[in-house]
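new request in #modeling-help
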Amino acid sequence: MQFGIFSVGDVTTDPMTGRTPSDGERIDAITAIALKAEEVGLDVFATGQHHNPPFTVSSPTTHLAFIAAQTERLILSTATTLITTTDPVRIAEDYAFLQHVSKGRNDLMMGRGNTGPVYPWFGKDIRQGIPMAIENYHLLRRLWREEVVDWQGKFRTPLQGFTSTPRPLDGTPPFVWHGSIRSTEIAEQAAYYGDGFFHNNIFWNMEHTAQMVRLYRRRFEHYGHGSADQAIVGLGGQVYMAATEAEAKRVFRPYFDNAPVYGHGPSLEQFTSATPLTVGTPEMVIERTLGFADAVGDYQRQLFLVDHAGQPLEMVLEQIEILGRDVVPVLRREFEARRPAHVPSDPPTHRSLVAAGPDAPHHLVAPARRQEVSA
Amino acid sequence: MSRRLVVLSAGLSQPSSTRLLADRIADAVSAQVTARGEALEVEVVEVRELAHDLATMMTTGGMPTPALVRARDLVSSADGLVAVTPVFTASYSGLFKMFVDALDPEALGGMPVLVAATAGTERHQLVLDHALRPLFGYLRAVVVPTGVFAATSDFGGEGADALGRRIARAGSELAALMVSESGAVAGFTPGAEDLTSPRRRSGNDLPEEVPDFEMLLGRLGQ
């Protein structure tokens, strides 16, 4: 099972000091966070893609390449890659390029973006979000899997005799996750291609997340990729840890109360009971996180959000230390102990996809097979 | 067959004239449904008790609290709805609207609804037609012809008898809709079942029908 951290890349004023980092300081801080993740033995670092303030992370492949140059083991991913407002041709090129420079240490997570005004800046319409996610991703699969592409669609100019370069490393496209909080079409999309499904699991109650994952698993089986419990699931989560629960709450509360998205809304206590947010001891985080598998089934990737709402870098690095030292080793052991033998522990990696060979379903544009018994 | 009536009362004080009116209307509906040989269960949603839940939902991108999950199930599965709000600044109260905003847009399709309001003065009586009917019309509810407006003077004053008659008439109209069956014979007009018995959604669960991906892809010509 893979464990890691994901950042949304917000530039937020630290409510304790009133200081707002510059874009450059925040980018450097996120780099330091990624390097710390490798240092303490985490598996994955993932960064968001946004094109509007207060976010500073508009160019994930540039950033991930920079981090790849300074790490050896860490898997570098996105959270998310915007499949709606980013040209799929650029995604095909940029992430294949990243594969080459990172030696296959990257995958990516598709997302649509939820901020209406961003779309027209790129000549797009948010009301077409789902159709764009469907068409653009299908084109992306073709660009990575077919040498020469002739293509015509609704959302970008047609392609004639087009070859995207560089070709994917070892002729093997990166593994893709599809992230969605509420859209059933996206869970269906992940299931159709046999890709991973990621639920960010930080804004909604666990029952809702479980419903989305259940839908994806059922359709994954329907499309012939394996049994429902073998589907590739990733979850987010957000934590703040200290030696005691009271101390964790005392330190984290001002950041929570002023956080983008839910700040000035529900109390920390309300939000902790309603969502997977855990503010307390490492033992509490372990217990809560193990409970995720009871809700969604045995899964393959767990990412934690630890660096938003203006938390200073030192605080975040300490959280990653605690994760690496006290939390993840226990979670690895416990998750493996409960996992049935036929359920994969890790999501596909570049190495495992290459080992599966050129005839593996991963290399098909449309790998779904109709099952006799429809789900 | 027993019918279920949900009474939405958005009064703020305890006791409230809004709740008082809501209870009188519920009694009238109950009398009229039982007069038609059917039983009626009445459940009351006090919007005041959900004030914090509604604020939480609005500030978390729409995440419903457990209490709102229950209320949404209750409302969307009802056979009829009585909606009573106090008038604030020439319209329904903000809290009342927050509750309606927390419902799924498909929660009230085809639902028989009786609208009612209370106010300090009869000068607000058009609130029913200017604010409440358009709101429930947008949600494709079936609003009964008679609305019930009660100003302070209607409780025990000169208007008391007239208020009683309005309540009885509106209750009768709602009861008639709640016990009526669809007259359409299945199969005669394609899709008629969908039109006569709209499928309501609480918004708590994912849709049962999964969009088939090949259809989604095919629509784009891929």
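bot summary: The longest strand of chain B covers residues 80-88.
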